Amino acid sequence: MFIDSHCHLDFPEFQSRLPEVLANMKASQVSNALCVSVDLPDFPNVLKLAQEHSHLYASVGVHPDYEDTPEPSYDFLVETALKHPKIIAIGETGLDYYRMGDRSYESMEWQRERFRTHIRAAIACKKPLIIHTRSASEDTIRILKEEGADQIGGVMHCFTESLEMAKAAMDMGFYISFSGIVTFKSAKELQATCKEVPLDRMLIETDSPYLAPIPYRGKINEPAWVAKVGQFIANLKGIPIEELAERTSNNFFQCFHIDRSYS
């Protein structure tokens, strides 16, 4: 069985076909999925999905790309995460300088402060972090270290950065999660990094509805297709698909502190 460690089933692309998407998961042997929060207005829909479906989980947090949105407070994140058992993580959070454009480094301080708030909340409620990082590797690692994120760990989601960054994150107890990007023909450097990441520190994901893997690239992605990510990585590493599926599924339950007997 596979697990999609990061998806967005609350997004509009799935509203009219959720039963079909869940059925496709089952048919593709995808046993569980983590529905990840990106902002506070839509968070209730994320939580509702997890509460209504035993095999779905939720996170709480605000994505670094969402600037004009209600800001999450430390108290809200901690209290919400502790109140709802189906919330298994804080995030997604992190830093994204990719769209900074002509803006100054100082103008992105709001991202760095939001990131610190999420880390502090995760430590307080003992929930792992879901980290988004793009064009901000140095600051991401620096802030994680400064805030003591090694106390709680988590996952570097949809990883596309360097092997050096992956190693720095793993040294702090983080898992490295690969999405459909790793299947792209242009992703040679990422594939080389993936080969070096040990199986006991690896997760797989779709980030659906985005980033559909080969052979579905360009289509609306869905959790069922995490099996294609797994198959590609198994071939890349020269191991049986069954081993990749079992190891990454075990890692998911370990990363998010889930008793597998109740999953």
Distance between the termini: 13 Å
Under the CATH scheme, which class?
Answer: Alpha Beta
Q: Helicity range of the residues?
A: 25-40%
Q: What is the succession of H and E elements?
A: EHEHEHEHEHEHEHEHH
Uncertain residue segments: none
State mean pLDDT (0 to 100 scale).
Answer: 96
Q: Could you characterize what this model shows?
A:
The chain is an alpha/beta fold. It has a single domain (2-262), classed as TIM Barrel. It is built from 9 helices and 8 strands. It has helices at residues 18-27, 43-52, 74-83, 109-125, 137-146, 163-171, 188-196, 226-237, 241-255; strands at residues 2-7, 30-35, 56-60, 87-96, 129-134, 154-156, 174-178, 202-204. Strands 1-2-3-4-5-6-7-8 form an 8-stranded parallel β-sheet. Helix 3 packs parallel to helix 4 (109-125). It is globular, with a radius of gyration of 17 Å. The model has no long low-confidence stretch (mean pLDDT 96).
